[in-house]
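ok trying this again, last paste got cut off
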Amino acid sequence: MEYPENYHEGRRFGPRQAHICWYIAEAYRALGDEKARMEWLREAAVQSGDFAESDFYRAQALRALGRDEEAAKLLRTMEAHGREQCARTQLAFFDGFPTPAPLLQRTRRF
């Protein structure tokens, strides 16, 4: 993907656009254009990532290209990375927005 010269927010360090390439490939699949689909799947397969959303779609592209072994290896690596992160990082618990429970709120009487 190419961004305009003055659009710095869109650029990332390294190609991490596999999810975009995957959905473009899916659009071509729906249109029946297998050649364009394969082109975009190959583009998705060469994207890099940081064990996040882009790598998941990269693995899906690898599977669609018949490269199941590579896809499985990437997914196993992602799982191991996630387990490692969970083991050494205390996960934050999100319990909604800081609003008191209904019984603790003061009621206004008019």
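PB: full thing came through this time. The two ends are 59 Å apart (CA to CA).
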